[in-house]
Amino acid sequence: KVFVDTTVLVCKSYTNLLFLFPPSTSVQSELRITTIKQEPYTMSKGTQLEGFCMDLLSEVAKKVGFKYKVHLVKDGSYGRQDESGNWNGMIGEVVRGEADLAIAPLTLTAAREKVVAMTKPFMQTGVSILLRKDISEGAGFFDFLTPFTAETWVGILIAYLGTAACIFVATRLSPCEWSQPLSEQNTFSFLHSLWYTAGALTLQGAGPHPKALSGRIICCSWWLFTIVLLACYFSNLSSSKTSDSSHLMVKGFEDLANQDMIEYGCLAGSSTLAFFKNSNNPVYRRIYEHMERTKSFVTSMDEGVRRAKEGNFAFIGESVSLDLAVARHCELVRAHEVVGMRGYSIAAALGSPIIKNLSVAILQLSEAGELAYLRSKWWASSCISDKAKSLAVQPHSLRGMFLVLSLGLGLGALVAVLELTSKSRRSAAEQKKSCCTVLSEELSLRLRTSNANKVQENLEKDKEKA
Length: 466
Fold this sequence. Notes:
Blueprint: H1 2-20, E1 31-35, E2 43-45, E3 48-50, H2 52-64, E4 68-72, H3 89-95, E5 101-107, H4 110-115, E6 116-118, E7 123-132, H5 133-136, H6 150-173, H7 190-201, H8 213-240, H9 253-257, E8 263-266, H10 271-278, H11 282-294, H12 301-310, E9 313-318, H13 319-328, E10 332-334, E11 339-349, H14 355-367, H15 370-378, H16 384-389, H17 399-431, H18 435-447, H19 449-465
Parallel strand pairs: 1-4, 1-5, 8-9
Antiparallel strand pairs: 2-3, 5-11, 6-11, 7-9, 7-10, 7-11
Helix pairs in contact: 2-14, 6-7, 6-8, 6-17, 8-17, 10-11, 17-18
């Protein structure tokens, strides 16, 4: 008697273990898989099917250990419940037992979770907006600064102030520029040096020009720098300038709801439509009511993308699908705002013993980076070169010109010191003083601002007397 009871207990325990953790031999010899054609999840290649979902199915089958046969859903629908409570599409096939698994971009929702078992999400998505680039953004007040980054503008400002300071110092030190500090006024004050440098930056010029070799070296270096700088600025400004065909700014759902110039809609009968329909957010409710009133729904993803490309239409859909459209069509852009985050999952019949193992396999693929690899493989963009054109110029892109300017400023300052030293040596020989003493006196005389003010006052007095 005891022996029989133990056998029953063992058999029951073994049956429970098979239900929770079925080995490969407990799974059907060939599972029936239903899917739907949608790029890049499932696509036809000759007589075979390929895409993200097909690669995912292959990897999951290896880990769990089952064979499968894939067929396309008969009615071409994901799965929606009608008024009588019956489900169509892939969800309906799983519910009716016509398929064991449904693998596609199936959104994990509460309604679907009630009638089928769904795995852990293999991809996260949300709801966003797809528009044509010329209506997605408006012109800002400071768009003229976009050709350069903030770091580049700071570098240009430092170069401007440094050049003006070098011109000011060189024209005061050089005897060829200012030969008689006691009787002559220096034409290159610091304010005039700033004005002269700004004039050269705008290619307008602001005389008088330096006469000494040291000042001319500095000016030539600055002129060369400004020519390259302006060429880079205007080139990048023209490439990043957006079309002026529309001045409407659409950055998110609130902007979309507050305007009436652009029509918008989503996929009919989709989970995106259900999100707006069931939302209590007043902005989302207004969007839903507008779509219902205007009947601006599309019957397929391709139709939504086509209407967005034609302009004056914003297509609302899953952010992952919209990212694919942006990667394939360079004239489109996705809004930054993403709401209603949810996931794509594999569906199986309620109580299916394989659903647990499928979730574990998906988590293992995610942790190993396989899902990220499949995403990059099937979402590869063909618009990389176009994106690179509108990038702001980084400081390291102009480091060569900054280096040339620095060498020119340093060389000009050195020549100015050499010019003053040469004059000091001649004066020391005439006055029979040491060169260092005469050079020190010259530096003190030329760099004192009070002396310049005194010379200005003397010149004004001479003019009054005359």
